[in-house]
Amino acid sequence: MNPPSTIAIDGPAASGKTTLALALARHLGYLYFDTGVMYRAVTLAALKRGIDINDDDAVSSTARTISVDVLPPTVDDGRPCTVLLDGEDVTWAIREPEIDAQVSIPSMYRGVREALTIIQRQIAARGEVVMVGRDIGTVVLPDADLKIYLDASVEERARRRWEENHLHGTDGSLEAVLDAMKNRDKLDSERDIAPLRPADDAVVIDNTNLSIPEVIEQVIQLIEGR
Ligand code: CDP
Which pTM was predicted? Predict the structure, then answer.
């Protein structure tokens, strides 16, 4: 077996990317890197600084000046990684519904995407990485050794996210989560720069009716059969 060194996993919100990517990274002994946390950290930084989220220049300049560190979990509370924004632990703060609702706006800005893409490519250049996002297979790492596009129905994804939110004590109805998710899907897939879509050479897996172990097994088989 010659395992792929760079693995790109893209797909819409709550499609199971994190679970799959973490399992693959563990299986292969690779770095797990979720690029979504960087867009979330930029959004949080802009809100904290009182910057208007619709001000492209101000938000892009925030993206260029903040420092975002993504580390292996530093606290055993179910987090897949620890996220530091200018040294402060924002791992759960970037998961609040307020960030969910706004994150697709900074993600549309060229300045923000350019700043974050540079960092993502530097991390991937070291190899042995499972990188997760929306545009990894299409823009960030067009030459990734393996590209997976993970999908599921929006109803199933909203149900999963609502369950996750409740585990972390966040209130809100399933309908509200579904509406926010449809809105984010639309913004992510219709934006001009790096829209959410499968790369031409991605393996597309719809896991609406698959269990987590089934998806992981399917991808491990794919890797071992190469
Ligand atoms: O965890 P979830 O799938 O809900 O979202 P995420 O992966 O944390 O990404 C949050 C948002 O960041 C997405 O809805 C996109 O707007 C943006 N994003 C992006 O534009 N490009 C990426 N490579 C990763 C995330």
Answer: 0.93
